């Protein structure tokens, strides 16, 4: 009568324990729905061991069969668990049966599950949306997923739909989401070509941005300091020797191209005729050769004071038009990702986590794909072809997105990190968003360097970093389990003179990014009043502490990989139930660390 019957699919001992403590009865289902699978027994201890084992991964899904929401069992016809049948037909006398229940606390739960086998579960928690046929759900059944969330939980969906954000909100996605292009779309592929200077590099500049401003930063000493930077030190390996100085006309070329690009951004070039690319090809090739020498070989430039001042003034004007100028860097590194995947999944040709780097660097082209999955190019013209090489043979070019890599991240003791930030959506109409006040950091195992593009230095996923040993001479204050809480980050920021950054810049920026991503996809998600969903957003911070959204994960892992995640994963599950169950009966009850940040 109280409708306190629940079903849990997957290794979620915390959810199961919290619901039982509230007086709910579990309706178990047998097996995993696979041929030859063994029935499920002793959920508490076995699932905890499974979850501890799974803690080495990042948001991994379990391959289980879909549930019939009316029956609460696997749709493939799985039978009740063997443990339940043994209890019903036990030859033991009642006294010995009670002793067995004391020794095996799951025994009584198995029996109760059998007693409610014909009842409808009113709370369903699964590890993936496809595990439940939402068309069969009753209105009063709670389930922890929405349908069609790929509009913002896949890289391609996020890339596509964030461009529509200005139609829904007065926000610019370029302020929190690194530039991204879907290679399947011809117009975006052309925009990517334009950004790299491939097609008419001086005449047909892409309105989405061109790496020439970063070229200017690299080629003119002292100009890069005009972009705001944090005082956190970034130890970086030095490039090769300075080499012979280059003629100053290279800077004049950079100023010319930047000025043209600035006019394009300001729509001041409508009546102007673009310069002929045929007349400029030779100059552009000479400019690029000089650029590579400055950035990668350490060549110097002899400039006058007037030229330096002109560069500073132009860069300041560009910074007002290009929100991402502060994180650009000068190596022009891009990362190729599988567009249809979320949570860092997907693998192609030996790449780690499905990601590949595209770096316009070096003096020779290396087209092979090493075990790390890194692909380097010496000329901008090679990038699109390399994208096709990366995608074959396991994926077509159209299934990948290419995104600007944050070259100037905030580092901690010279090491890159990202942050996992949870948020909860309890309604899409009106959109209702809860932001979790606690989060955790994931560190790389090797020091950051743009001269070495290996995953150990650049990809923070636990599933990737577990394959590498910690660097020798690693700073003693970096955690051996490569995880920090957000409280430890705040303490570090205070030590380096950035005590107000967390509450004044980082958290507000993450909240704005989350709401912006959700609003851009709101009309595409299949919303249902009886559903809710917990998501995990991954952010990286720039040197100015500005957060940059990398991706949003459905079904974020609840498997602990460290002492920090063991505590936080348990607390976010506890507080999720407070919001979605307890607040329904008592709106004034505590929501734990969840904060309501948006409700239409």
Automatic annotation (TrEMBL):
It comes from the Eukaryota. InterPro entries: TTL/TTLL_fam (IPR004344), TTLL_monoglycylase (IPR051437). Residues 29-73 are annotated as: Disordered. Residues 39-56 have a biased composition (Basic and acidic residues). The keyword Ligase applies. It catalyses: L-glutamyl-[protein] + glycine + ATP = glycyl-L-glutamyl-[protein] + ADP + phosphate + H(+). GO terms for molecular function: ATP binding; protein-glycine ligase activity, initiating. PANTHER family: TUBULIN MONOGLYCYLASE TTLL3. This is TTLL3 monoglycylase. It comes from Cepphus grylle. The lineage of its organism: Eukaryota, Metazoa, Chordata, Craniata, Vertebrata.
